[in-house]
Structure of SAM-dependent methyltransferase:
Amino acid sequence: MSSGQTAPDPRSAFAALLTSAGSRVLAAAETAPADPLKAATVLRTESERALAESAGEDGAPGVAPADLAGAALTQARLRARARVKFGTRAERMFFTEPGLEQATRMSVADYRARRLAAALGAGARVADLGCGVGSDAIAAADAGLEVEAVDSDPLTVAVAAANAERLGLDGRMRVREGDAAEVDPGGYDAVFCDPARRTARGRVFDPDAYAPTWDTVMDLAARAPASCVKAAPGIPHERIPAGAAAEWISVDGDLKETALWQGLGDGPARRATLLRSDGSPPATLAAGPGGGPAPTGPPARYLYEPDNAVVRAHLVAEAAEPVEGRLLDPAIAYITSDRLVATPFCRAFEVHEAMPFSLKRLRSSLRRAGAGTVTIKKRGSAVDVDKLLRDLKPSGPESAVVVLTRVGDRPLCLVCSEVTASP
């Protein structure tokens, strides 16, 4: 930027995207050349034309062509990235960079919204405190709830409001600027809160550094008739309130979040819920009344790897029970069994060879198997996976899965292949 120039106002540039001229430039940005310089040239020319043709119209944007072009190009690229989380909805939505980073994947937001709607009933009033670009509020409104979405950032509020309008949900979703900590949670049937876990320096792992802080969020949740709080999947168990039901949620095996429920007849204190992108029904595993530890034993014919949601929820023993399994080591989440049983909570592997870890022995085993494609999994092992793959130098037409773990202080290596049990 040259001396004397002022930085473009992002709110003005975003407001311009909502006009007919902005829509035209945004449409051009969707098909702009991949090369940034070429894209900028094409879009600036289109912006100049669109702004000139809209001059004098009500709501005509008062922005420079370069600013409108930049905003459109940024938005188009954010939409392309957002398809992973939002599917086809992304094509009609608007985003900010930090808003997209923290936004809930829609399959998770939809699942939570259905739980809220089932417990509260259609038309219940829900406050979304710290709504971001609106993914959770959108899901709640789509489920039939009346949502008031609050965020402290003016640009984010404008983006969330535009998303509600573009998705046809503005009749059930009101967005306003405000401080979440100052909202009276007793004025709603339930509150939802997703505290910000990112700063300019990156992801925040300490709950006390969330915004609002963890204590503030927990106070809001406790004063509401019912609540759901979204927390990081790695939140320490000791930071979970005694009265909350904690639910670890994964999508296709990728652990996404911990949802803390209060006041909804929440059931077990710990549960793991697995969502699938293929549209299959959610699978939930809950802590039982006994909750004793799983037995331990040596490697058997099959090895089960529990989903990360199961592991974080401390439900490995519950996952072992239906497969008649036992743990190789009481502190490590690998289950072994003589039976192959279909279970949504674990991936299954057939064990072809079990041995104390040795590079020489493992290389010989893979050579005998003709394994040129090797996947290495580890829990409780300090082995450098990348270095091990280089040292193994696998070759051949077959594939194998190598599991590195330990029993006590003894390193253990299992050579396996993934299998699928019939339901």
Observations:
- The mean pLDDT is 92.
- The first helix runs from residue 10 to 17.
- The longest strand covers residues 346-356.
- The chain has 13 helices and 18 strands.
